[in-house]
Every structure is written in C-alpha cells, then in structure tokens.
C-alpha cells in the first residue's frame, strides 16, 4: 500500500507542474484525493485485522499468502501462527529453517509435504517419536532417510514407512520380512508394495491371503532388480524367473532326495 501512496504523491506533483493544462486537472486531483482517503482507510483496516491472531492464523494457513508475509508471520508471538507457517506448503525453505528450534516447529516442518529434502535429512535422528513418525510419513522424505527409519526401534515409525507411497520397493520388501502383523497390514495398504513382499507376507500369515489377492501388485508382480533384492531367508530358493521362493514351512522335515 505504501508503494501506491508514493505513486499518488508523484502523480499529484506532476499535476501541479501541469496546472494550466486544462480544466480536467482539478477533476483528476479530486479523484486522487478520494483514492488516497480510501487507501488510508484500508491501511487502518489492515492494521486492525493484523491485531487479531485469528486473522494472522488464517493468513499463515493459506497457500496463497505471499512469501514476504509468511516470513513475517514466522516470527509471530503466537505459537499457533508460527506452526501454521511451518505447515504451509508455500513457506520457503529459508523460513522453515528458522522454525525448527523447538519440538513443535520440528514436528510441523516434518509434516510439511513441501519441506526440502535437505532439511528433512536433518531430522532423521531426532529424539522425539512424533517428529520421526511425521518424517516417516512425509512423501518428500529422501530414500536414505527412510532406509534409516526402517530400523527405528519404535514400531509406529516403521509402520509409517510401510505406508509411505514414496518408500522404495526394496525397503518395503525388507519390512515384509518382519513378523509384525501391524506392519504387514500397513504394507497391504501401500499400493506400491511389490509382489515379492506380498508373497513373503502370505507365507508368514496365511490368514491375510484373501486381502493379499486384492492387492494390484500380487497378480502382476515382477521380481525386484538383483541390486535391490535383500538376501533370501534361510531355506529359500531362487527360481528361474528370479523370484524368491520361501523354504519348507511344514511341521515335518522335508524328505531327503534318494
């Protein structure tokens, strides 16, 4: 608004230099004076609105809010406003960096799907469970960070990795080797879980067979690339098509070849 005010003042000075140009100069000057009065009213209204934390929160949440205003709101006295800025997908990386100084800020930044990968890497070893869970669920989290979170001691973090649509297939395959039923259910919900991982789950938990059949990757599964395939479990064999076949899982021992 200040830029518009300067423009009005410059135009008024121009009119004064051309005072003898004709009778329309007075009409234009009156119009500009009315416009300046309206601008003053808008400035007062804007000041009053910014005094209301609910209005600032709405600005902080809107993806259409200009970057400069988000940078200003990142220093708001209200924590709720600052956290909304941290969650806003339009907030620039330089502003997000300033918001990770406390737990709430790190959590909000970890949730933000537009947080740059480099900033997410810095949260990989965060000591807070909620932050790591948000990081594991973020579709923008780099694969190398997800590879670390696969081994997280907290089951909830590993489950978020299993649900993440950006988790690479070889990591989903590794998670399928777990005996954790909640982890298997999470892998069933991920449309990117490879067929080999689903077959491994079927061997561990036959009760999930019906749900496994509904997964789009089971019928049209293809073997993972050899570089991405983890070592087969003990007793497993690799067929000609490259798939891993689980070893004998019956009660008795397999008969020896004669």
Automatic annotation (TrEMBL):
Superkingdom, taxonomy of origin: Bacteria
Q: Where is this region: Disordered?
A: 211-258
Q: Residue ranges under compositional bias (Basic residues)?
A: 246-258
- Quote the protein name from its UniProt record: Leucine rich repeat variant
| Source organism (scientific name) | Meiothermus hypogaeus NBRC 106114
């Amino acid at each position: 608004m200040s830029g518009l005010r300067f423009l009005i003042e410059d135009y008024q000075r121009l009119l004064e230099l051309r005072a003898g140009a004709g009778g329309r100069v007075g009409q234009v000057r009156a119009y500009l004076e009315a416009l300046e009065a309206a601008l003053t009213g808008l400035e007062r209204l804007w000041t009053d609105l910014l005094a209301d934390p609910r209005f600032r929160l709405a600005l902080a949440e809107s993806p259409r809010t200009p970057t400069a205003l988000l940078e200003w709101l990142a220093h708001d006295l209200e924590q709720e406003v600052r956290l909304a800025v941290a969650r806003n997908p339009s907030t620039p990386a330089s502003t997000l960096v300033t918001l990770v100084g406390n737990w709430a800020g790190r959590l909000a930044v970890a949730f933000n799907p537009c947080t740059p990968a480099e900033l997410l890497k810095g949260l990989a070893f965060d000591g807070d469970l909620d932050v790591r869970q948000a990081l594991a669920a973020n579709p923008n989290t780099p694969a190398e960070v997800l590879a670390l979170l696969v081994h997280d001691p907290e089951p909830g973090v590993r489950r978020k990795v299993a649900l993440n649509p950006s988790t690479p297939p070889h990591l989903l395959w590794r998670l399928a080797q777990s005996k954790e039923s909640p982890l298997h259910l999470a892998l069933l919900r991920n449309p990117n879980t490879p067929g080999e991982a689903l077959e491994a789950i079927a061997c561990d938990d036959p009760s999930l067979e019906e749900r496994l059949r509904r997964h789009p990757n089971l019928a049209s599964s293809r073997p993972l690339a050899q570089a991405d395939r983890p070592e087969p479990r003990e007793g497993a064999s690799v067929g000609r098509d490259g798939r891993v076949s689980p070893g004998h899982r019956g009660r008795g021992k397999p008969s020896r070849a004669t």
